[in-house]
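Protocol step 4 of 6: structure prediction from sequence.
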Amino acid sequence: MRIHHQQGVMGPTYGPCALGHNDGVKTMHATKQATGSHPVATEVVQVLVADSGPIQSQLLTRALKSRRDFQVSAVALETDALHNFMESNRADVVLIAGNHLPDLSLLRWLRVSHPKIAPVLLAETDDRELVVNAFRAGARGIFLFAHTPFSMLCKCIHCVFQGEVWLNSRQMTYVLDALSEVPTLRVVNSTGRFLLTPREEQVVALVADGMTNRGVAVELGLSEHTIKKYLLRIFDKVGISSRVELVLYAMSHGEHRPAEWMPSNDA
């Protein structure tokens, strides 16, 4: 997988794309091979616009249809509408747009049901929560439609179609920061007091990540016997009796925060 990194937050300049281009993506259906002897047909990208605003959807669809390298269709921004379309039609790239923040369950559904499709979120802003959650849900790109020329949207479509990821410098920072985060288990009592200590939260995070007791002990600089004692104490506080129950509980009650382990002697 290649990442198409737009240099600068608003993308005034751009890095290389898989397709050859100067200021925009070539719209010709045939380009010359390196030898210059025979033309090579450019594959038409099947683009599906999923938008909650009919007028905006019509305008965007009309603009994309003016390009010879796209075959464009449009549906309502609903899972049922997407499902019905996919039953009898092909889509390579899905543009998800709307007047409000989208339901990211659409992205998750596309990732599970149609993993070969590349979804792109058309957003007005790229705040951290939206960016991180969108990529976690399966987005292959986030395009700031209000701040970036239409020609770059065409380039974005071609890039994600080629297997790249479309994001700018700020979005890349958000995603990289998210990679350094770990799930933590926040358990409170009826008065809102946290039941687990920071160290216990770390143990839960590593267990939920699939580590064995030995692996957790190495990560935290503790003995395996100490990790077993921590787990028994956690089981008692949470009211469970096995590692499997703990993982399931962490998945449904976990939050995310930076992975800042405590010193090994702070047990």
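Step 5 (inspection) to follow. The domain at 182-258 is CATH 1.10.10.10 (Arc Repressor Mutant, subunit A).
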